[in-house]
Amino acid sequence: MNIFLEKKILKIDSMLRLFFVEPHAPVQPNPAKSHCEKKNWSDVQYQQSKGQMRINHTGEICAQALYNGHYDHRHDVKMKNWLQHAAEEEYDHLVWCHQRLKELNTQPSLLNPFFYTCSYLMARFLSRVNAKMNLAFIKETEKQVEAHLNSQLTLLQHDQRSCEIIKQMIIDERKHHDHAVDFGGQDMPVMISKLMGIAAGLMKNIAFYF
Ligand SMILES: [Fe+2]
Ligand SMILES: [Fe+2]
Questions:
Q1: Average pLDDT over the chain, rounded to whole?
Q2: Which of 11, 24, 152, 200 is the most exposed place for a label (fewest CB within 10 A)?
Q3: Full-model pTM
């Protein structure tokens, strides 16, 4: 089979697996593993945990699209290695969030294929503009994700298992942000950062419920 076609089929296969197949075991163990569950929660707290962890799962689906979209258009080996390593850590986050959603008896967002497609197209578009724009986008995304995760530590004080996952994600997202800076990622123009924040806010409002 034509190698180009083979690569495309493998890409589509791994994308579909994100939505329809149970994720494989993470490389890093689930940070919530040794924490017991206290479940004397109110209905509001229960809905909060489900909704917030569904948002995080969707965020990690978008992270797969973001890193894969950039990886496809970079030729620098060092940068490609970093993008691949970051995508692997994001995959661990995806698995932990998936496992947590199962423990909470709920499912991932039904709109994940849509969110994945939007993120992938955005990453490809920026990669074609230039590498600097691509790195600035990763830097700003990781910064906004870290702020969002920090705010969840207050919202989910009742839910220690989710918080343990979130704390490790904060450490990893900060590392991704710093590596984007090391590779030359600069600040996004304020207007674009604001637009990114609005798009992320929309995604969060939808994924919380659906
Ligand atoms: Fe992540
Ligand atoms: Fe990240």
A1: 90
A2: 24
A3: 0.90
Residue 1, pLDDT score: 63
Question: pLDDT tens digits, residue range 158-177?
Answer: 999 999 999 999 999 999 99
Residues of the chain under the 70 pLDDT cut? 1
Residue 8 lies in a domain: no
Task: Identify whether 19 is part of a domain.
Answer: no
Ligand 1 mean position, distance from CA 97 (Å): 10
> Rounded to whole angstroms, how far apart are CA atoms 40 and 100?
17
Total number of domains in the chain: 1
For residue 42, how far is its CA from the centre of ligand 2 (angstroms)? 32
Where would I find the H helices in the chain? 3-20, 43-71, 77-103, 112-129, 131-155, 160-182, 190-209
